[in-house]
Design goal:
Blueprint: E1 15-17, H1 36-41, H2 50-57, E2 60-62, H3 80-103, H4 112-133, H5 175-191, H6 204-234, H7 243-293, H8 298-342
Antiparallel strand pairs: 1-2
Helix pairs in contact: 3-5, 4-5, 4-8, 5-8, 6-7, 6-8, 7-8
């Protein structure tokens, strides 16, 4: 690992790190031929020498930078996490469009590959979304729906709520979002187990964007269920008081509850980032022992190398479990937040 940055190999860069023999041809013969953005991506100064540039290129495959702009007016830089997220999007699209096509007729999917992904989807539906959110039709009686009527059955009607198909569970309207969260996070996590790639979810910017999406989803679903005023009023729990005391206590509790609503989603980002970043950092540290031990006696180096490789295998297997677990936790917490937004306290 880098002597200056111990987190080097888990950060986002404008290149992929690969075995050195794959990059032997990526060298420049004159410093004037080196584009400015190559030095920027390699974190070199614009005064870097040709030897420094070619040395920094060893073991790296640079990404094209069509939007880099100029040195005076830098633009958008394409990074490996951006590319990996596009790969995740394509994987989700290919796999689940294929699965949807096979079950559209109502017949069960056939084949181990399709059954594998269908099992994950059903677990999220039957063990997370439906039991956590439930049928909240009884929460909307003040909107004028009859609890036993056609509108009350799903909490829809003149108030603009989403329709739910006959025979479907009322919570299924939230399934597309929760499924998207689970599989997107899962695939991002799993790509980190592939050599030379990485986990985009090990970047706070990515997890922050995911948490912001969950925050907006909770807000939008809550407003759809209760209206704008009803959503914010629902943040205040029942004080058990009446009159002025209730008004005063509610006024004191509202900013606290609103802050708590924001903090819960902020922690959602930090939890995912910390677990994925920490896991890959541990792997890097374990392998780093080999380089450190190489400066000592060869016998010590051999013992450390064997131990580090075995430790890498063990922690790597644990990371596969963590990849699935953290995707589940993220989607489960997002479901809990949605449930709190659409249910009356």
């Amino acid at each position: 690992m880098s002597a200056e940055d111990h987190f080097h190999h888990v950060r986002d860069f404008g290149y992929f790190e690969v075995p050195q023999f794959l990059t032997s041809r990526h060298t420049y013969d004159a410093i004037g031929n080196v584009p400015w953005h190559v030095k920027h991506v390699l974190h070199l100064s614009q005064d870097a020498t040709l030897e420094q540039v070619n040395g920094a290129l060893v073991g790296k495959v640079l990404l094209p930078q069509p939007f880099a702009g100029s040195a005076a007016h830098p633009g958008l830089f394409v990074t490996k996490f951006m590319v990996l997220q596009v790969v995740v999007l394509v994987l989700c699209l290919v796999i689940f469009r294929g699965l949807a096509t096979r079950i559209r007729s109502g017949q069960p999917a056939k084949g181990r590959f399709w059954n594998f992904w269908e099992a994950f989807a059903l677990v999220i539906r039957d063990q997370v979304v439906r039991p956590t959110i439930g049928d909240h039709s009884h929460d909307h009686d003040d909107h004028g729906h009859d609890e036993h009527g056609s509108h009350g059955a799903h909490g829809h009607g003149a108030h603009g709520h989403h329709a739910v198909a006959t025979g479907a569970h009322a919570a299924d309207r939230y399934l597309p979002f929760v499924w998207s969260c689970f599989f997107y996070v899962l695939f991002c996590n799993l790509l980190g187990a592939v050599p030379s790639l990485g986990s985009a979810t090990g970047n706070i910017n990515v997890t922050g964007a995911l948490a912001l999406t969950a925050f907006l989803a909770s807000f939008v679903f809550g407003v759809q269920a209760m209206g704008v005023g009803g959503f914010f009023a629902n943040l205040i729990p029942n004080t058990g008081m009446t009159g002025f005391g209730n008004v005063a206590m509610s006024a004191l509790m509202f900013p606290i509850e609103l802050m708590g609503f924001v903090i819960k989603h902020t922690i959602l980002a930090l939890r995912l980032f910390g677990n994925i970043m920490g896991g890959h950092t541990a792997l890097g540290v374990i392998l780093g022992f080999i380089g450190t031990a190489s400066k000592g006696h060869i016998a010590l180096w051999g013992v450390v190398t064997v131990g580090s490789v075995l430790g890498q295998i063990g922690v790597g297997l644990l990371e596969l479990l963590v990849a699935v677990l953290q995707a589940y936790v993220f989607s489960f917490l997002a479901t809990i937040f949605i449930s709190g937004a659409v249910h009356k306290h």
